[in-house]
């Protein structure tokens, strides 16, 4: 019965990787960056693109939508 409840809970959740725990770098790269490189849609606009040649490193934290 417990396995069935866990399976149903997994089907209900459509939250991308990294939102319910602290993701590893491998999980972030494997999901978000791989989708970006493959020109696949990422449902949430959470990773902002920054032109690193036009911004100083100490100003990165202030660059939000």
Describe this structure in words.
With 65 residues, the chain is mainly alpha-helical. The chain has a domain at 2-46. It has 2 helices and no strands. The chain has helices spanning 2-12, 25-37. The longest helix has 13 residues, at 25-37. The chain is globular, with a radius of gyration of 16 Å. Mean pLDDT is 72; it is low at 5-10. This is NAC domain-containing protein. It comes from Aegilops tauschii subsp. strangulata (Goatgrass). GO terms for molecular function: DNA binding. It holds the Pfam family NAM. InterPro entries: NAC-dom, NAC_dom_sf.
Head-to-tail CA distance between termini: 45 Å
Looking at the structure, what is the overall shape?
A: globular
Average the pLDDT over all residues and give the rounded result. 72
Counting helices, strands and paired strands, the structural category is: mainly alpha
Percent helix range: 25-40%
Compute the number of strand runs: 0
Provide the succession of SSEs: HH
Strand content: under 5%
Alpha carbon gyration radius: 16 Å
Low-confidence stretches: 5-10
The major sheet is characterized as: none
Compact summary:
With 65 residues, this protein is mainly α.
């Amino acid at each position: 019965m417990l396995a069935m409840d866990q399976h149903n809970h997994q089907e209900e959740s459509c939250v991308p990787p990294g939102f319910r725990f602290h993701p590893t770098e491998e999980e972030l790269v494997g999901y978000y960056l791989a989708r970006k490189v493959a020109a696949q849609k990422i449902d949430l606009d959470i990773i902002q693109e920054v032109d690193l040649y036009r911004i100083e490193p100490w100003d990165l934290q202030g660059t939000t939508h």
